[in-house]
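Dear Dr. V.,

Thank you for agreeing to look over these. As mentioned in my earlier message, I'm a first-year student in the group and I'm still getting used to reading structure tokens, so any feedback on how I've presented them would be very welcome. I ran two proteins. I've put each sequence directly above its structure. The first is here:
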Amino acid sequence: MISFKLFAGTNIGLRDNNEDNFTVCPDLTLDEWRIPANHQQTIPLGKRGCVVVVADGMGGQNAGEVASDIAIKTVEEMFAPSTLPVDVSEKSGVIEAYLKKVIEEADLRVKQHSKDYPETLGMGSTIIIVWLLGENVYVAWLGDSRAYSYVPGKGIGRLSKDHSYVQQLVDAKVLTEEQAMNDPNSNVITRSLGDPSQKAKADVASYAVEQGEVILLCSDGLCGVCNDEEIGGIIEAESADLQVCKEKLTTAALTNGGSDNITIVLLQIEKTAPSDEEPQPPQKQQSLDIWRMLLYPFVAVILLCMVYSWNRLYHRVLKKENPPDVEQVDCNVPASLSEHTPDTVAEDSVLINNARSIIKLITNGGTLSSEKTTVTDTMTEESKFGKLNPADPLNDTINRVKSN
């Protein structure tokens, strides 16, 4: 689980006006672009993430602050819930493509404004966007505003690479980082919003966040006069309070002779390990599903055994009780039957009659009668089992019984 603390601010420095701009949205699902009232508040990361932005306007009297304002408003519009595509946060490639699209749109708007208002011709702005989403941070930038990452025990590192003339010299090993900071051309950038000579071509990178990590966004009013080690040392010493950390960084920039506007955004990550979290309902459901997987086959086996046993029992009883066809039944009464007394004759008659009824039930699908009948009734009346068949061997047996 990811949560974070957030603080941001800007300082005019020694300039007459502030051409820097910034914006923060702690939760994109709420679309509230503002600094949290309590900078010590730990904010759970929402489903759509958190976005922070810094833009450093250029152009002086040619409205650099207008260009940076256009950049900020473009970001806020394109990350609004009604504009941000629902599926944009599902894949890394889609996220990076969308960040580039946002910067391209900001570039078009700055250029269009310059055309509509000729007095602002030549204005431009840097931009750097950090999107904290899930356990990753996505960085997109144009110009020399920077993103840093400070990780306790590991130190500070850059998340972005300047689009500047001196950075090209550093890459070519013509200058060192220290020399680049003091070079007269250190403020010359090679990419920016509003540059009429080229389309905006943003760079994008992504990184996995770590526990306690502090992400810093800043304009060159800070990183142009303070080296990485000094910045990292201040963050390490003051990370317990981001507001104090921001003030200390601003003071360091001014102390080092900085005269430019100074804008700083600080985002501190709190990453909770899964083992430290309370058990979640999905885990309980998973445990229940395991028990069901074990129980269902066991119950199924028992039911199959019961069905098999009942089927065997049913066929055994049916085989025992289902005699051959009535015409083939050997109903010859033993000789001893002729010696029965009148009292036993009646009992035998009832048994025989019941046997007839059962045979008829099985062979004709009839229903057993609960009424008791005598041999005479059976011989003289039509019952639901039909008339006695004179040729029926059982009828001969009954006649012999009567004659006795």
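The second protein is here, in the same arrangement:
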Amino acid sequence: MQGMAPPRNSNPPPEGAKVSDESAYEQLCTDFRALNAILWQMPVIFTTLTGGLWFAVASFDLTDRGRSALLLFAGVADLIMIAALGRLRFVMEKMRLKIVDYDRRPSPTWNYFTVSLMGVLLLVAALGSFYASADPSTWFAKSEPKQASGSAAVQPDPCARQLEGARPAKPTGKDQRRG
């Protein structure tokens, strides 16, 4: 074990000891990067949630009440996401201002531009969910599949199981197998 450095922060600092400006700056930057990664992951997660709920409403045989419930849930989740994005960005701004104090750089303008755009998109999705939840059968009506026309029309499957009680077709000489 000789020559190995002791683990970082293995001993707590003595009482009254101050953290150096450099280590405080590094920790702020590390925390800011971690929060920034979360900020960019949140819209993807909620877009997937909203899209998945809309897909379920459009694809599965649900009652109108069930469809409305899923659409309302999607709308509420999108509104909560807007609040969560705003709160996360607010915390990041406080950290960013501390970092700027250490850097002594000018502060950029329009700090909430990206989060605002994400919020607008989520608001549109929430409003769409709420609007469609009032009458989901109008927006998510199932239509019968269309038959292809011409010679490429879909033919019944000759290998499909026959209905119970129906006599199976009598095999012809060509269909019989030899043992």
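From my reading of the second output: Residues 158 and 176 are 16 Å apart (CA to CA). The two ends are 78 Å apart (CA to CA). Does that match how you would interpret it?

Kind regards,
E.
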